[in-house]
Amino acid sequence: MSEALPWTPELAATDRDKVWHPYAPMPSVVEPFPVVSADGVRIRLADGRELLDGMASWWSAIHGYRHPALDQAVRDQLDSMAHVMFGGLTHAPGVRLAERLTELAPAGLEHVFFADSGSVSVEVAIKMCLQYQRSQGHTSRTRLMTVRGGYHGDTFGAMAVTDPAGSMHQLWADVLPEHVFADRPPTVLTEEYAAHLAQLAAQHADSLAAIIVEPVVQGAGGMHFYDPEVLKLLRGICDEHGLLLVFDEIATGFGRTGELFAADHAGVSPDIMTVGKALTGGYMTLAAVLCTTRVAHGISSGEAPVLMHGPTFMANPLACAVAYASTGLLLDGAWRTQVAGIEKLLTTHLEPARELPGVADVRVLGAIGVIEMRQPTDMRTATKAAMDQGVWIRPFGTLLYVMPPYVTPEEDVERIAAALVAAARASAPASER
C-alpha cells in the first residue's frame, strides 16, 4: 500500500496562497487542518492527532473510511474503466445502480437521471419541473413554491429556492429568479399552517410548476425538524393544482433520519426526488434525480422531446460502482439498528446541554444531533473545544451539530456527544459562563 503524501511547510504555504477553500476568503485567514489519512470513523492529522469524525465528511461517509467493500468496488472497476461518456453509450455500473435506486426509492419513482453533484441534481429537478409543465402546454408555470429555512445548494437555480432571508445566498437576492416562499414548516402541523400552505398555493397556482422541499429535516438552513404530516399536505396540494412535488433527499437520504428516505416518515411519494452525499458512501461525487413515468413521458412527448441536460461526468462508472456497493451495504438493514442506537445515545448525552448558558434548543433525529445556541458561535472557539476532546465538528451560525457515520461505536458516539456539549459550553457568551 502506498504511503500518504507527507505534509510539508511548502504545501501549507501553497494551500494558503493558491487554494480557495469553501466559504472562506482568499488568501485564507484561518489555516485548515491538514489530513493525511482516514480509517474507520477517524481522521488523522499531519501533526499526528486522531479525531473522531462527527461530520461523516459533510454527511456522506455513512460507512466510515476505507470500508473493505467500497475499496474493493473501486479497485475492481478500475480494472475495466474509470470513465466513459454517457451520451450515446451506456455501461453496467450505471444501469445496475439505476435499478437499485428505483427498488429502494419511494413507490412510483421509476426513472433515474444521473448528475455529478447534489446542487446539479437540484438544477436538473427544477429543469424537469419546468420542462414538464411546458410540455403539457402550461407555459406560464415558471416558478416554484418552497418553504422558509430551506437549503438546496450553491448553484443559481438551487440558490433561488433556498431561503433568501438571512441565508448565505442573500447576496444574490436581486439577481435570482423570484419564487414563492411559505413560512417555515412547524414541528407539529396546525390548522393555521395547513391553511397558509393551501392559500399560498391556490393564490399562485397558475404560475407554479412544482413545490420543492427538504422532507422532515431542513439541513444547512437551520437543522430544523418538522412534522411529516406536512408532506402529506403538500402531496394533496400538488395533486389539487396539477403541480409536481419534489423532495430534496440529498442530506436525508439513505437512512440518516431513521428511515431509508425521509419521505418514508410520511409514507408519501414525490414526483421527483434528488439524492447525493451518502449515495457513494462519501467516496466520490455522484448524485441522481429520480422521477415518475408520468414526468418522464410528459417531458419526452413535449416540444423538445428530450431532457435538455447532460453533465460530462454523468454516471461516471467508478462512482456508480462504489455507489452500488454502498447501497448494497444498506440492504441487510443493519443501518436501522445503528442509527437507532446513535439516536438514543445522542438524546441521552446531549440533553445536559439544555441547561448550559446560551443554549436555545437541543434536538435529535436519527443520526443527527443538534445544539442550537441563542447567538452565533465563533467557529474557531467551538471547533477547538471539540478537538480538545478528540472530535471533529464544523459548526455554522448558531448551530453546533453532528452527523456521525452509522458505524460509529457506542463509546465513540458518547465522546462525540461530550465534545459537542464542550463546544456549547465554550461558545456561551462570556457574561453567562
Characterization of the model:
With 433 residues, this protein is an alpha/beta fold. It has two domains: 33-66 and 333-427, Aspartate Aminotransferase, domain 1 (Alpha-Beta Complex), CATH 3.90.1150; 69-331, Type I PLP-dependent aspartate aminotransferase-like (Major domain) (Aspartate Aminotransferase, domain 2, 3-Layer(aba) Sandwich), CATH 3.40.640.10. It has 13 helices and 16 strands. It has helices spanning 9-18, 56-59, 68-78, 92-104, 118-135, 156-160, 191-204, 229-241, 293-300, 317-330, 334-350, 379-387, 410-427, and strands at 35-39, 42-45, 50-53, 111-115, 143-147, 180-182, 208-213, 217-218, 224-225, 244-248, 272-275, 287-291, 359-365, 368-373, 391-392, 399-402. The strands form four sheets. The chain has a seven-stranded mixed beta sheet with strand order 4-12-11-10-7-5-6, sandwiched between helices. A four-stranded mixed beta sheet has the order 1-2-3-15. The protein has a three-stranded antiparallel beta sheet with strand order 13-14-16, with helices on one face. The longest helix is centred in the first third of the chain and has 18 residues, at 118-135. The radius of gyration is 22 Å and the shape is globular. Homodimer.
Fold blueprint:
Layout: H1 9-18, E1 35-39, E2 42-45, E3 50-53, H2 56-59, H3 68-78, H4 92-104, E4 111-115, H5 118-135, E5 143-147, H6 156-160, E6 180-182, H7 191-204, E7 208-213, E8 217-218, E9 224-225, H8 229-241, E10 244-248, E11 272-275, E12 287-291, H9 293-300, H10 317-330, H11 334-350, E13 359-365, E14 368-373, H12 379-387, E15 391-392, E16 399-402, H13 410-427
Parallel strand pairs: 3-15, 5-6, 5-7, 7-10, 10-11
Antiparallel strand pairs: 1-2, 2-3, 4-12, 8-9, 11-12, 13-14, 14-16
Helix pairs in contact: 3-10, 4-10, 5-9, 7-8, 11-13, 12-13
GO molecular function: adenosylmethionine-8-amino-7-oxononanoate transaminase activity; pyridoxal phosphate binding
GO biological process, one term: biotin biosynthetic process
Keywords: Aminotransferase, Biotin biosynthesis, Cytoplasm, Pyridoxal phosphate, S-adenosyl-L-methionine, Transferase
